[in-house]
């Protein structure tokens, strides 16, 4: 499409996928682009850590979606620890160390930099929840309603509105997120709060495994200054009677986790984690604790006439894949390529769907496989040696999709 002469577009959602999609659309030749974001203020005060595989970063940087001005902490190694009361180190027994070429970001600064890249001629409307999206009965376009007034018409509506997407509901009907059966407890706080921050090397991502789950810990930039936060996420099954409703998992924001769920975390920290990591979890205040029940799904297709889905609106894979933000950014590069390489909107949508739907399915399948082994049916960690662990991981991620599928190998 010739630059600026393509379709008029509304993007619903202004988070990672929405900002990247707005950039992609303008580069791909769209005409006027409007972003509707439900939240009223900037999003960067919320969020904790997010990791990007070095190779996926390089591809996205080459496409012009990320760059070195976004602060990160370089990780190089992943060390697997298990509690062993005979272990000499408070970190636990070192089971296995593997290369781990990932960049750790503070979600807030990643979003802020993407927001800065949204071209100035894109109209961003904050505090603008989209209530309804529907095909225009009088023509080709799509009608979008934000309030009680008349709907606006666009040639294309892009759903970047997360897992409860109104655009997905219009494009594909009812796609129900499926509850994984367990929860992520998350937190982040300044590393200086740890009694011995130096014991845990800066470039090391710790995978602390226990019966029925695991804890992942890595450092992230604290935000604007040069400090570091210890960012952690622990996956395990909540105690009986405290599972969320299966078809409507809702995260519990900081400060709202009920006592039985906090107590369960305290039990895991005291009884199942090595002392250093148990202390780290205990250092998190209730105001820093986030609970996120896990779920996944993928839309049957990424497009419908006049509509396209990106990021979590299209597919949510379990976070064990280490690729949620990568997938959203890659969707944007694919949207740009599809728009640039075709002359009609319907051809662009067909190319985009062919490119991304299979990747979404691959990541959901990988997330389920990893979740089964890392949480639902954990092996007897302490009995495994390095050779067995290598074989075990190879069986889980033989195709190497962990951290995100390469842009040069989009399916399979
Ligand atoms: C504030 C925030 C903090 C986050 N922090 C982290 C983190 O620390 N680590 C991590 O791994 N992931 C985090 N995530 C999730 C992460 O961004 C996504 O999993 C992934 O990057 C894909 O992003 P997305 O833009 O598709 O979805 P999301 O990030 O979920 O964004 C969807 C956006 O759409 C908006 N929206 C929804 N419905 C409507 C509507 N009807 N009308 C208008 N706008 C609507 C939402 O307000 C939201 O901004 C966070 C998301 C948000 C919104």
From TrEMBL:
PROSITE patterns for this protein: PROKAR_LIPOPROTEIN
- UniProt keyword Nucleotide-binding, yes or no: no
Give GO terms: molecular function aspect only.
monooxygenase activity
- Keyword set, alphabetical order: Monooxygenase, Oxidoreductase
Name the UniProt record assigns to this protein: Monooxygenase
Origin organism of this chain?
Streptomyces xanthii
């Amino acid at each position: 499409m010739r630059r600026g002469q393509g379709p008029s577009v509304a993007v619903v959602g202004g988070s990672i996928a929405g900002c990247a999609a707005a950039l992609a659309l303008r580069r791909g030749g769209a005409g006027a682009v409007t972003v509707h974001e439900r939240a009223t203020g900037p999003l960067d005060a919320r969020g904790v850590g997010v990791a990007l595989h070095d190779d996926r970063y390089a591809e996205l940087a080459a496409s012009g979606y990320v760059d070195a001005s976004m602060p990160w902490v370089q990780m190089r190694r992943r060390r697997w620890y298990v509690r062993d009361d005979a272990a000499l180190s408070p970190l636990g027994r070192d089971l296995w160390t593997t290369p781990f070429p990932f960049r750790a970001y503070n979600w807030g600064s990643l979003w802020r930099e993407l927001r800065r890249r949204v071209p100035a001629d894109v109209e961003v409307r904050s505090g603008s929840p989209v209530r309804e999206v529907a095909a225009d009965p009088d023509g080709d376009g799509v009608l979008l309603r934000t309030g009680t007034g008349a709907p606006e018409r666009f040639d294309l509506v892009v759903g970047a509105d997360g897992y409860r997407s109104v655009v997905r509901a219009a494009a594909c009907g009812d796609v129900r997120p499926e509850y994984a059966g367990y929860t992520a407890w998350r937190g982040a706080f300044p590393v200086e709060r740890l009694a011995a921050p130096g014991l845990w090397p800066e470039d090391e991502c710790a995978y602390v495994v226990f019966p029925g789950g695991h804890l992942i810990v890595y450092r992230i930039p604290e935000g604007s200054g040069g400090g570091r936060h210890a960012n952690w996420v622990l996956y395990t099954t909540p105690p009986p009677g405290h599972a969320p409703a299966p078809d409507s998992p809702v995260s519990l924001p900081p400060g709202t986790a009920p006592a039985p769920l906090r107590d369960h975390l305290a039990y895991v920290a005291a009884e199942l984690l090595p002392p250093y990591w148990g202390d780290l979890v205990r250092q998190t205040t209730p105001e820093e604790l986030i609970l996120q029940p896990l779920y996944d799904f993928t839309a049957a297709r990424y497009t419908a006439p006049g509509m396209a889905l990106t990021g979590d609106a299209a597919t949510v894979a379990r976070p064990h894949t280490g690729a949620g933000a990568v997938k959203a950014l890659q969707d944007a590069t694919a949207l740009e390529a599809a728009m640039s390489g075709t002359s009609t909107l319907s051809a662009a949508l067909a190319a985009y769907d062919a490119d991304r739907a299979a990747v979404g399915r691959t990541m959901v399948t990988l997330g389920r496989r990893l979740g089964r082994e890392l949480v639902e049916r954990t092996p007897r960690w302490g009995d495994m040696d390095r050779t067995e662990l290598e074989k075990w991981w190879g069986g889980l991620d033989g195709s190497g999709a962990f951290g995100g599928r390469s842009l040069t190998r989009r399916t399979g």
